[in-house]
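Problem 12. The chain below contains 453 residues. Write out its predicted structure in token notation.
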Amino acid sequence: MTLLRAFSVLLVTLLCSFVHAEQQLEPFANLETDGKVRLFDIQGSNTIGAAMAPALVVDYLKAKGASEVHISPFAPNEKLVTGFFKPTRTRLSVRIAAHGSGTGFKGLLNKSADIAAASRPVKLKEVEQLRSFAKIRSADSEHVVGIDGLAIIVNAANPVSELSVDDIAEIFSGGYRDWSELGGKPGPITVYARDENSGTWDSFKGMVLGKKHRLIPNTRRFESNDKLSDKVMADPNGIGFVGLASVKDAKLVAVSDGSAKALKPNKLTVATEDYALSRRLYMYTDDDIQNPHVAEFIQFALSNSGQKVVADSGFISQELKAVKPEFYAELPETFRAITDSARRLTINFRFEKGSAKLDNKALQDIDRLVDYLQQQRTTEIVLIGFGDKKRTERRSQLLSKLRAMAVRRELVRNGIYPKESIGYGEYLPVASANREEGRTKNRRVEVWVKDNS
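Solution.
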């Protein structure tokens, strides 16, 4: 039995490494000779479709042996990535239409898209519409391909450097109309926002405006992140929101939520989703993918090779890094004693809403963590759970420890044995406890590593 268990652990580890390590792809096979083949279509988010998706497709085609690979725009916010496979003299293409996340789900529904790119989770009404197509919220359909920080940007000359989520909501709904009300130079605030089809807009509306606020009527709207950023850079009184890859030379504003510390989006704060306006970037597919190129492309995007492309596109990859944070000095002495000689991994484990079950991203991240720790053989691991406020501090601490233990169980199944699993209850909230989304973000497990050499 011991030998069998050891073999099982080794097999799981090898499979995890295969999925997330450098992706080695076999050349194209069974292609039509002297023909033209449309491999698949991607529709949806402009945040993903503007640069990341085309770059992923380019590297995917090259990894499969294609040459003469290039990107050609053929309509506003639409691109065609083409390549040539010499052994069969086949022209290959992938079409990318980036008109907003909602259009991706419509594309899946009417079968004009194989992949829906989305910069926000699928909505309940879309789940219902796609029920006959796939279990769209299942781990087989929902693929997190990167993390983005929804950046709040102002003109470089603006002295305002920190805002709360509530401040931002008031600005964009007209509650604040002059920068002097926020500690800036006198001047009327000009508001810039993405258009109604944009997943970036959906994310902003959900994370900032909520149900209490409406966007001010004279807001200037844009289909493109980059064009919005250009306008803010040229307007001394401008403020807007864009994906992290489109900040350019605008000024980033640090954002706080509730009692949480104000943070700017960076590698650690966005990758762990501690930054108040962080969001996941998704690709949705059929839960039983019939097109082998689609299945292989998704695996490529999730691999370390694909995640390097994500990072090169200006987003935050899910490839794990060990970072020494700067903002833990305010915590209790016991916490500092645990973390002072440790580094934090750019990963947080989160759970399905109202559940202790790991969410889809967390299930992928277990594999990533196993692969990382297998390569860092002298590293010991500490899991630290956090939660939201409960009736008693003791209950909050207990639940946070149980979450850490849930992650530990998954790691033990893969032959990884964390040194400690600790619960710190309601300490160090990263989001407001007044919203369910904030409470969900606060219920998390951090991963810290120590070199035990």
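Discussion. The chain has 15 helices and 19 strands. Students who got a different answer should revisit the alignment rule from Section 12.3.
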